[in-house]
Specification:
This protein has 419 residues and is of the alpha+beta class. Helices cover 14% and strands 32% of the residues. Strands 16-17-21-19-20-29-25-24-28-23 form a 10-stranded mixed beta sheet. Strands 1, 6, 7, 8, 9, 10, 11 and 14 form an 8-stranded antiparallel beta sheet that branches. Helix 5 runs antiparallel to helix 7 (406-417).
């Protein structure tokens, strides 16, 4: 992993932008002139203090506060703040990236006379400041349009930043935007680097089991009010499509109770402009992954559906070219699966799954309520002829590997003899 001095610098001046930095906590960073918000979209980059060389693609600036509110990449945690004179010496965390661990030193933030902050890093008597590389800050912008971050001074305001503390009681909060509505319920597969709790009425789910034979994935709800630990992928059920009703409360980093079983995994980044960074994209693999969506019969589930994935239409030649590959979206939870899993898995609660079929006594192939040598004989016949019905197959799968083979006959035979 390359040294991420650029991230350190960018996050550093983020701290300067708030008139009164209140110490450790969660913030967003906004350019004082362009009003573009900073996003951490990769975990690699570099700056040469001694030269003008800088590779800052991990940091992007996007217009519009509404976009920032629902994007975890805009949330920066100030985990170390020391004041030296009028300036602050800081460390930052965002999207699983710790600046000091990456670049080996802290960043500096100091207030300007105009009430903003500037951010810089220094080494061997040389200093680099972070700024918005936009050459014309007055041009109209639209939602999603981004500016680049660099170290070449354009103007005092373009290198000035506002640091905005995050709070559910202000307009600078964090919320979850549902990506799919199924049967009137609003969902978002979510993955973030901070611990959080949900607002009243919201629910968080994990996946505890995959039953490939029944084409089912089983979910369990986390207890209401429980802190969802950092980097825990969850499926969130929102209250509304209005994100103001789906606020979450960020918690201090710490050791929180993790779900005992969770087959979901997550990714932080999906950055089209970082082709040489191994973590900037996560290539979708239909052999090992399923994404949240609707099944062919309209039920919620995890499916193999390319239309739910990200298309990289930026290549070395420019925009509007599809490289044919599909990627997971940034900050998305997905389901990790064994290679034999069908394309669609219907999501069922643990209660729904338990009621799906009657319980089966493992090894009771003839269904008489006992496990003995008669079952061994019946199982041997079924393996040779392939004539068992579904309930018999459930009981015959003695080692519960999803297959009925001669190995099950051997294991059942040994179990009966050992009684």
């Amino acid at each position: 992993m390359k040294r991420l001095l650029n991230l350190a610098l960018l996050l550093l001046f983020a701290m300067y932008t708030f008139p009164q930095i209140s110490g450790v906590g969660y913030y967003r960073v906004c350019n004082a002139q362009t009003k573009y918000y900073m996003y951490v979209t990769d975990n690699t980059g570099k700056i040469s203090i001694q030269t003008t060389d800088a590779e800052m693609g991990a940091l992007q600036l996007y217009k519009d506060q509404d976009l920032a509110i629902t994007n975890p990449a805009s949330v920066i945690y100030f985990n170390s703040v020391q004041k030296s004179g009028s300036e602050y010496i800081c460390n930052f965390e965002a999207q699983g990236v710790d600046v000091v661990n990456l670049i080996g030193y802290h960043v500096h933030v100091y207030p300007t006379s105009a009430g903003h902050y500037q951010v810089y890093a220094t080494s061997s008597g040389m200093t680099k400041y972070l700024d918005d590389e936009n050459t014309n800050a007055t041009i109209p912008s639209y939602l999603g349009y981004f500016h680049s971050v660099g170290t070449t001074k354009k103007s005092d305001l373009l290198r000035s930043w506002d640091v905005l503390p995050i709070s559910t009681s202000s307009n600078n909060y964090v919320a979850i935007k549902p990506t799919m509505t199924i049967s009137g319920r609003h969902f978002a597969p979510y993955y973030a680097s901070y611990p959080f709790t949900l607002s009243q009425g919201m629910k968080a789910y994990v996946v505890t089991k995959i039953d490939a034979e029944k084409k089912v994935a089983v979910y369990a709800a986390l207890p209401d009010g429980q802190v969802i630990p950092a980097s825990t992928p969850v499926l969130v059920e929102c209250v509304s499509t209005d994100v103001a009703q789906n606020k979450i409360t960020l918690q201090k980093p710490g050791q929180y109770k993790t779900p005992p079983t969770n087959l979901l995994k997550g990714v932080y980044f999906c950055n089209d402009f970082r082709p040489n960074s191994k973590d900037a994209h996560t290539l979708y693999n239909p052999q090992t992954m399923r994404v949240f969506g609707t099944t062919s019969d309209g039920k919620m589930g995890f499916v193999n559906n390319g239309s739910l994935l990200h298309v990289n239409d930026y290549v070395s030649n420019g925009w509007d070219e599809d490289d044919g590959k599909r990627y997971l979206h940034a900050n998305q939870a997905y389901l990790s699966i064994p290679s034999s899993t069908p394309d669609e898995l219907t999501l069922l609660s643990e209660e729904e799954y338990a009621a799906l079929a009657p319980s089966v006594l493992r090894g009771d192939v003839n269904g008489d309520g006992k496990v003995n040598m008669f079952d061994v004989q019946v199982l041997f016949t079924h393996v040779l002829s392939g004539t068992a019905n579904q309930l018999q197959l459930n009981a015959a799968d003695y080692d519960a590997d999803g297959k009925v083979l001669m190995l099950d006959v051997q294991k059942l035979f040994i179990a009966v003899l050992s009684k």
